[in-house]
Specification:
Strand order of the largest sheet: 3-2-1-4-6-5-7
Number of strands: 7
CATH class: Alpha Beta
Oligomer: single chain
Number of helices: 8
CATH architecture: Alpha-Beta Complex
Shape: globular
Radius of gyration: 16 Å
């Protein structure tokens, strides 16, 4: 069974612009996990007939766990309607999971992909993202090009084995690291990252980078004790 989890927090402009492009027919169920929007985002999806769950604990990581609890499917894809993620990739991620991969990631750094900062003279966030992927690959013998991107799918059982009990934006990086530790099967597809539609990223660069470093060192220390 395929479950699509849409994560929202004040994304009314992106939601309206992208709604008709989301391939709802590619999934068996869809739930919106809303982190307390005050711009009409939750009301918009309810009006369109999509089930909305109000997220009590704040943070992207917490939203993943809410999505897991509120869906029934074995194959789960997480999508954010902010303009960065291409809805056309949703069926591709589901297909990889059904082929037997434990986790499928839409990569912004594979050949044929595009990163939002590709046209920037100083693509700092891109370089930092690639650095964190390099660290994970060196430490845990991986070949992942985009360890951080949140546009991904995974099997329910694999997620529970990874057990990423964090609330913030670092959850995807922890998932990638732990999937490498467990030797789970990971597959990436190239994705075209678009420009944000309204609003700004909720992740502040410097504090988020520090949090990533802290969790990287934590994962080095704990080994597989998260199981």
């Amino acid at each position: 069974m395929r479950s699509l989890v849409i994560l929202t927090y004040n994304e009314i402009k992106g939601s309206r612009a992208l709604f008709d492009k989301i391939p709802f027919s590619a999934c068996d169920e869809c739930v919106v996990v809303d982190g307390g929007s005050i711009d009409g985002t939750a009301e918009f999806y309810r009006t369109e007939g999509i089930r909305v769950v109000d997220q009590q604990d704040r943070g992207r990581g917490a939203a993943f766990w809410v999505g897991l609890r509120e869906t029934r499917g074995d194959c789960i894809v997480v999508f954010s309607p902010d303009g960065n993620e291409d809805p056309a990739d949703i069926p591709k991620l589901f297909a990889l999971l059904e082929e037997g991969f434990d986790m499928a990631i839409a990569s912004r750094f594979m050949p044929g992909s595009r990163n939002e900062e590709d046209d920037s003279l100083l693509p700092l966030r891109k370089w930092v993202n690639m650095m964190f992927s390099w660290c994970a690959n060196v430490l845990w013998q991986g070949k992942v090009t985009d360890s951080i991107n949140g546009f991904r799918g995974f099997h329910r059982e694999a997620f529970l084995r990874m057990n990423p009990k964090v609330n913030g934006f670092v959850i995807e990086y922890i998932m990638t690291i732990r999937a490498l530790k467990l030797r789970l099967k990971i597959k990436e597809i190239p994705t075209i990252e678009g420009s944000r539609i309204g609003g700004k990223s909720k992740a502040r660069s410097f504090p988020t980078g520090i949090e990533f470093l802290r969790n990287l060192f934590h994962e080095i220390r704990v080994g597989k004790s998260f199981e």
